[in-house]
Amino acid sequence: MNNNAMKGRPVYVVDGSRTPFLKAGEEPGPFQAADLAVRAAQPLLNRQPFSPEELDEVITGCVMPGPDEANISRIAALRAGCGKAVPAWTVQRNCGSGMQALDSAARNIAANRADLVMAGGTESMSQAPLLFPPQMVGWLGQLNRARKPAQKLKIASRFKPSYLKPVIGLIRGLTDPTVGLSMGKTAEILADKFNISRAEMDEYAVRSHLRLAAAQEQGRLSEIEPLYDWKGVVHEHDEGVRPDSSVEKLAKLRPVFDGRYGKVTAGNSSQITDGAAWLILASEKAIKKYQLPVMGRIVDCAWAGNDPSEMGLGPVFACTPLIRRNQKKLEDIDYWELNEAFAAQVIACLRAWRSDAFCKQSLGLKQAFGEIDDERLNVDGGAIALGHPVGVSGARIVLHLLHVLKNNKAATGVASQCIGGGQGGAMLVEV
After folding, report:
1. Is 95 one of the catalytic residues?
2. Which end of the chain, N or C, is less packed with Cβ atoms under 10 Å?
3. How far apart are CA 410 and CA 402, in angstroms?
4. What's the rounded Cα separation, in Å, for the pair 392 and 33?
């Protein structure tokens, strides 16, 4: 468990933006990950009193960049007009990549290594690559090395149709190779461990959709910048929301990861989506120099590891030391954004914190850590309704949490998420 608190100069968030989250269909979406990053960055940078070239660096989280997007952060920075002199680098911590970008930026500012950084994440899950299996790669390599026609013909005769079976990058990426479990199966494990019923999971999912629908209707998602695709279609809102969602409708869906005994369905899981999100972080020196507004302050960030087969409990292991080392309690946090990878995963975290036995055995506490008020958790819905583009969600939840705190005249919030591979990330912010 990492207890390295953030120390040094204060780190402020001055602005941020994101794209709508576009639901993935059967075909690749209209935007590559770099496109999404640029589309979110341009309006954000255009409204700043400084030029993009005055940024100290650009940091981007991304899990599945395309073949032409090596160090996608540099590509996005150049295309967004940041200039050749602004360095840019990409981070990858699975679902925590976007939050890792923010943490990296904040620590550089706190350490006096930077004053103005744009950080966030981008992901086009609908364009996750398809790969050849090793047999096909080996066959192609032999064919390429052959020089004489007879040699090429001999190697060509060894080809087997099975070599063409693709390796689906998205499925492999959502499967933990260390334990051989998909993320959905880890959610099933938590549902069993904490005795979470299918009805409870579906009820939570419906709540996520209804809250997001209300937030859209009441204009509480001002961080979104519209997208215009090459066909002239305008994308203004998160596409996954279902305002007519109901427990009765979700009950008709079959389990995805355990067809016989499972409870986790497509309806109570996060959606496969494309999107991007950015925040601009600044030191007090930069704020004074450019007379920048302040959305809030990043106080601290914590990362933790846990059993990969129970990866959804990551927020419990990350949030607990984060809150304790900042001398706070659960009830001191005004609002929470806990990324909704699965309804079972969120409910499991809440139950773990309420359990004396779990907190004693797994967290080393003397008693249960406490209970989060439902009316202060994911108040505008979450990834079940709007989607979870893995490299982006950590940045999105921090950005939206700052808006929630401002809209509700509150002071303190925590954004947290579970991370594939058995990790958790948590960020404490204040306004």
Report:
1. yes
2. N
3. 9
4. 10
Which residue has tokens 């994308």?
A: 235
Give pLDDT, residue 412. 98
Catalytic one among 82, 95, 319, 359?
A: 95
Alpha-carbon distance of 366 to 113, in angstroms, equals 40
Check 235, 388, 400, 403 and give the catalytic one.
Answer: 388
335 bridge partner residues: 413
Both tokens of 388, joined, read: 């979870």
Domain spans, the chain = 181-220+299-430
Chain position carrying tokens 């359990």: 355
By the 8 A CB rule, do 423 and 98 touch? no
Is 394 exposed, middle or buried (CB count within 10 Å of its CB: 0-12, 13-18, 19+)? buried
Distance of CA 218 to the CA centre of its chain: 24
Q: Any catalytic annotation for residue 418?
A: yes
Query: Which residues partner with 89 through β-bridges?
Result: 59
Between CA 99 and CA 97 the distance in angstroms is 5
pLDDT of residue 163: 85
Bridge partners of 132?
none
DSSP class of 63: S
67: which DSSP letter?
T
- 130 beta partners: 168
Q: Is the pTM of this model over 0.90?
A: yes
Correct CATH for 181-220+299-430 of 3.30.540.10, 3.60.90.10, 3.90.1150.10, 3.40.47.10: 3.40.47.10
Question: What Rg do the C-alpha atoms of the chain give, in angstroms?
Answer: 22
| Local structure of 312: helix, strand or coil | helix
> Residues 396, 270: contact at Cβ < 8 Å?
no
Check 82, 301, 359, 418 and give the catalytic one: 418
Query: Which one-letter DSSP state was computed for residue 39?
Result: H
Please report which residue ranges of 220-370 form alpha helices under DSSP H: 247-250, 284-290, 314-325, 343-354, 356-363
Placement of tokens 């109901």 in the chain: 246
Cα distances from 153 to residues 132, 142, 145, in angstroms, run 21, 11, 12
* Nearest residue to 123 (alpha-carbon basis) of 34, 40, 45: 34
The answer to whether the beta carbons of residues 194 and 204 sit under 8 Å apart is: no
pLDDT of residue 4: 65
Q: How many helices (H) and strands (E) does the chain have?
A: 15, 16
- Pair of tokens at residue 25: 């269909």
- Residue numbers in the chain where pLDDT is lower than 50: 1
- Dihedral angle, C-alpha 401, 404, 408, 412, nearest 10 °: 0
